Amino acid sequence: MDWGMQNRLSRIIKPRTGHTVMLAVDHGYFLGPTRKLESPRETIKPLLPHADALMLTRGVLRSSVDPGANTPVVLRVSGGTSIIGENLANEGITTSMEEALRLNVSAVALSIFVGTPYEKQTLMNLSELVNQGEEHGIPVLAVTAVGKELGKRDARYLGLCCRIASELGAHIVKTYYCDGFDKIVESTPSPIVIAGGPKLKTELDAFKMTYDAIQAGAVGVDMGRNIWQHDYPIAMIKGVRSVVHKKHTPKEAHDVFKKEKAKVDKRKPKKKK
Length: 273
Ligand code: R5P
Description:
It is a single chain. The chain is of the alpha/beta class. It has one domain: Aldolase class I (TIM Barrel, Alpha-Beta Barrel), CATH 3.20.20. Helices cover 44% and strands 15% of the residues. Helix 4 links the parallel strand 2 and strand 3. Helix 9 (203-215) packs parallel to helix 11. The longest helix is centred in the middle third of the chain and has 18 residues, at 119-136. The protein is globular and about 60 Å long. The chain starts with a helix and ends in a 6-residue tail after the last helix. The structure holds ribose-5-phosphate. Residues 24, 26-27, 55, 111, 143, 145, 195-197, 222-226 line the site of ribose-5-phosphate (R5P).
């Protein structure tokens, strides 16, 4: 692998642990002003020091992230659809490789929609992006998107998507955690990160999902809503980090969470009786 490509990958997947906690804040590209991401700068700023990489679009990067920030960027370069439009799978490439280079990103990301009428289109998007990425030393992260069909998140389907993404040259594959996840990892030569998906009931559920994914061989998470839709986002990301980088159990991560939460509560002004 070329030096530039390796260097960029190691900015994202930390060589010290071989793992990564990416913070996903790209949801607006098809969801619009998602709850608690209405003002991206406010959501991102306090979390930035705790993220190994930031996944977002160029619009939010330019408008809402200080260029002095040293957090590696994974730039979402696919889109062109919306949650109220005809078909979420009908994505194109929205951002050029030259723009990605200008923004000094560490990787580019796109979604693939296997099993939809836009399967070929999105797989060709991935192939073309890998061609360009190889030319410029920019890794490509492929997201095995399920659109509105969250029920599609099973090992047979996701295993198929991940393997295809890997065969077409994706340097990192992002998918969902599911039962039989170890089989997906086994049959996908590229490193895998998991998305968090919609916010789970409790923080412990999120730590457990992260733990199970890491145990099964994921290199980390690219998590959004389970972190920033929580009332204690910093406590959440710290808990997740402890599982990913320190091999903490869900209970140990929950202790990290509670400690951080207590610090925040202590700083809150007391309500008058
Ligand atoms: C993926 O394609 C989305 O744009 C998000 O980046 C992804 O779903 C991760 O965020 P969350 O953990 O909220 O699912």
